[in-house]
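Box 3.1. Reading complex inputs
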Amino acid sequence: MERSLQQARSVRTKAVKVKTDRSLSEKTFVLFIYAFTGLFALICVLPFWLVLINSFAAESSIKQHGYQLIPKAFSLNAYQYLAHGKQIASSYLVSTTVTVAGTVLAVLITAMYAYVLAHPKVKYRNVMSFLTYFTMIFGAGLVGFYILIANWLHLKDSLGALILPYLLNPFFAFIMVSFFRTLPYEINEAATVDGANDLSIFFRIIIPISKPVIATVGLFYALQYWNDFFLALLFIDDYKLHPLQMMIRQLISNINIGAYVGGSQTTYSQPLPTYGVQLATVCVTIGPVFLLYPMIQKYFVKGITIGALKG
Amino acid sequence: MTMVREIVKNKYLYLLALPGLLFLIVFAYVPMAGHLIAFKKYRLADGIWGSQWVGFANFKFFFMSSDWYKVTFNTIFLNGLFIVCGLGIALALAIFLNEITQLVFKKIAQSFIFMPYFISWLVVSMMVFAFLNTTDGILNRTLAANGLDTQNWYLMPGVWPAILTIIYVWKFAGYYSIIFLAAITGISGEYYESARIDGATRFQQIIHITIPLIRNVLIVLALLGVGRIFYGDFGMIYGIVGDTAPLYPTTDVIDTYSYRALRQLGDFSKSSAVILYQSVMGLVTIVIFNAIAKKIDKDSSLF
C-alpha cells in the first residue's frame, strides 16, 4: 500500500517535471524564433538606415570615422551639391518618363494580349500561348538583341531603347491570362447580345473589373523600369539620357564626379563630398519607392503569390 | 483559308493582340537571327547575312580555352548556392513568421525583410561597397577598431561566392518567404489542433506538419531554379562586381563573360557562340526540370 502510494507520487512528480521541461523548451524555442526573425529583419533594414543617415553626414565625419549608425556631424552639403548640378534633374526626368510611359504602354499591351490568350472564342490562342512561352525558355541572346536595337532599329541614345524592350513580359502576361480565365464568360455573352463588339467589351467592361490585377502587374512593370540599368548600360552613352540607376553607376566608377554631377560650368568652391553625393543619389533614387512602400507592398505580395501558384 | 476566316470573324480580338504579337516577333523572334553569328566571322559592315561562314570555329575557340570551364562552373556553382541558401533561409523565415503571434512584430519584420527586394542591383552594389571598401568600409573599420588586420576584399576572389550568397539571401529571402508563407497559410488549422491535443510541441508541429505539407512547394521552386541554372543574374553580378578583374576567377558567369566579349572586346562572334551554348543548355535544363516540377505539382509549375 505504502509502496504503491510512493510510486504514484514519484510518477506524478516525474510528470510535472516533464511538463515544465517541455514548456521551458517551448519558451526557448519561441524566443529563438523571435530572435532569429528580428535579427534578420534588422540586418535587412540596417543598410537602408546607414545610407539614409550618412547621406546627411558631413563628408569629414565619414572620412574620419567611416559610416556610422549616428554620424558625428551632420550636413546638407551632399544634397546641395546634387541640387546645384544638372545631372540629377535630367536623370530624374529620364527615369520618371521611362517608368511612366513604359508602365502605361506595357500594362495596356500586356492586358490586351493576355485577354486574347484567355478568350475561348479565339482559335489560335494556344498557338499564341506557345509562341509566348517559347520566348521564356529560349532567348534571342545578347548579340542578336544588341544588333536589333543598335543597328536595325537605330535606337542607341534614345528613350525608345529604354522603353520598348520591356513592353511585354511573358510572365506578367500569363499572370493576367490566369486572372482573365477566372472571369465568368456570361459577361461577354450578355454584352454581345447588347450589341457591343470585342473592343468595347474589353475597354468598357473588362478593364474596369480587372483593376486589381492591372495594379499588381503595373507595379511590377514600374519597379522593373525604375530599377533597370541593363538597357542604359547597353544603349545609352549620352549623359543627358542617363537614368538614375546609371547615375549611381557613374558615381561608383567615375573618377571625375564633379564634372559629371555638376556639369562643366559649376562654380562650387567647397571640396567635393564624394561619399555624400553617392549616398544622397541613392536616397533620392529609392526614395519614391519607399514613400509608396506602405501602399504598394500588398500588391507585390499578391502578385508574387499568384505568380508562384499559377505562373 | 480557315485562318483568314477565323481572323476576320474575331477581327477585334486579333486587333487587341496585334501590338503584343508584333512585340514578340520584333523583340524576341527576329533577334534570334543573332545566333547565326556564332557560326560566322561577324563584321559590322557585312551584317549578319553577309558575314563569312566559319562553321564551328568560334565554338572550338571557346571550348579550347579554360574560360569555358571557368564560367560554366561559376554559373552553376553560384546558382546552386543561391538556390540552396536562398530557399533554405526563406523557408525558415516563413515558418518562423507563421509561428509569431505578436502581430505588430510580425508585420514590421515582414515589411523589413521584403524591403531589399525593391532596390536595384546598383543600389545594392553601393551598399556592398560602403561595407567592404578598403579604406572607409564598415567591415575594415570594425576590424581595425578591434585590432584585427584589414583586408582588401575586392582583391580576394575566394570569399566572393560567400559574399554573393549572403547578398542574394538578403535580397530575396523576403520574396521567397512570401511564397512559402502563402503555402503555409493554406494548411488547414485542424492538423495543428489535433497535434496540440496529442501534446505535440511547436517544434514537433513544424517538423511533422508544416514541412511535409509544403515540401512540394519547396521542391518545385528548387526545380524551377535548377532549370535556370545556366542563366547567371547579369544585373546582380555585373552590378556588384562590375569590371573588377581580380574577382573574375570566382564571379565571372556566362552572362558577364559574353557581355564583356561583346561590349569590351567587340567580338560579336565569340559572344554569340557563348550565348548559343548557354541558350541550348538552358533550354534543355528548363524543359527537363519544368517537366519534373510539373509532375510533382500540377498547380505550381509553368504550364
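In summary: The mean pLDDT of chain A is 88.
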